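Weekly modeling sync, notes
Attendees: S.R. (lead), two postdocs, one rotation student

Agenda item 3: backlog of single-chain predictions. S.R. asked that every request posted to the team notebook include the full sequence so nobody has to chase files. The rotation student volunteered to paste the first one in as an example of the format we agreed on. Action items at the bottom.

Example entry:
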Amino acid sequence: MPCPEATAAATSGSSAHRRRSDGTAAGTRPRVGSFPGDGSSAVALGDGVLWEPSYGLPLVFSDGTAAGTRRLGDLAPGIAGEPSLAVVDDAQAFFTEAGSLWRTDSTPAGVLCLLGHRCAVSAWWRDPRSGDFGRARAEPLPGNDLSGTFWFFRDGNVELLVKALDGTPVNRRWWIFAGGLTDVEYWLQALDVEAAGAGGADAVKWYHHPPPDLCGLADTDAFAGLPGGYFPSPAAGVAAAAAPTSLDLLGGRYRVSVDWRDPRSGDVGVGHAVPGSDNTGFFWFFRDSNVELVVKVLDGTPVNGHRWVFYGGLTDVEYTLRVEDLLGDEVRTYDHPAGDLCGGADTTAFPEPTPPTSSP
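Predicted structure, as returned to the notebook:
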């Protein structure tokens, strides 16, 4: 389980203790978590137990380990008030809270573990058009300890890019950046794992993104920096000269590239590509571990007859994004001014050609 320290720290409490047993003395373990109440109402669910500590307190799930013990309120911030356990059907449990029926399969939805597992990041989303709500699924970037992504609706459809940097050499603080490819509402939680384990009062930061905003965020005062700073191992690094400078998306039909300029130094360069999926990829500008831009091209022709282009940045430098249709010989460019953290969405980027009609 990712960032077990974060999960364990978030489940501390007092009073009710649960024990796990396989029927033998050796297989009966000490408590896996402490929660107020007597915990008298419990049911088996999947590989663990779901129980009510007492009336009016959050439901708790445990797989028998400290890392796997958590409140359902930690899975979604919308669960509050006085939940009541209703029924268990196979591997799912249903419960009511504030007049609403909720469902859980107890599985962790995903946490990004960044900065050497010192920073745990989670996200939740709500679509104001449909009212749908859920916890985002985390996808770490391979070989990258500073950045990761979240998807909301469908696996592989990246909606949010998050980056954590140790700014100790600059201001002795951690920095949190986020750039979205979505206009839905979302919440982002960043946790300083070691501070949380020590009971630190400033161990958690929350960020709220209102709809339909496409702008990202930058917090250069998130948490106290690491002693001596944190620098990821360069072993997995890719030399700039060897890194590709373009992405080929949607079956290779759309080629994406980017040029950047830092107005502070006057430095200029090209973005170095990091492939993600068939519709999504990333670019870094200065260092291969420091992702600066995420780009997504979707086939929206069933909706409006066009391909759609989305992009979100974790940088305030100036850049120009270029998307080329290799079959249709069309190009779209998007200029991003310096100092701006907003992304962009173009849902009329590339129209699907209309088939010629035969003469009568």
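Discussion: group reviewed the output briefly. The radius of gyration is 23 Å.
Action items: rotation student to repeat for the remaining queue; S.R. to check formatting next week.
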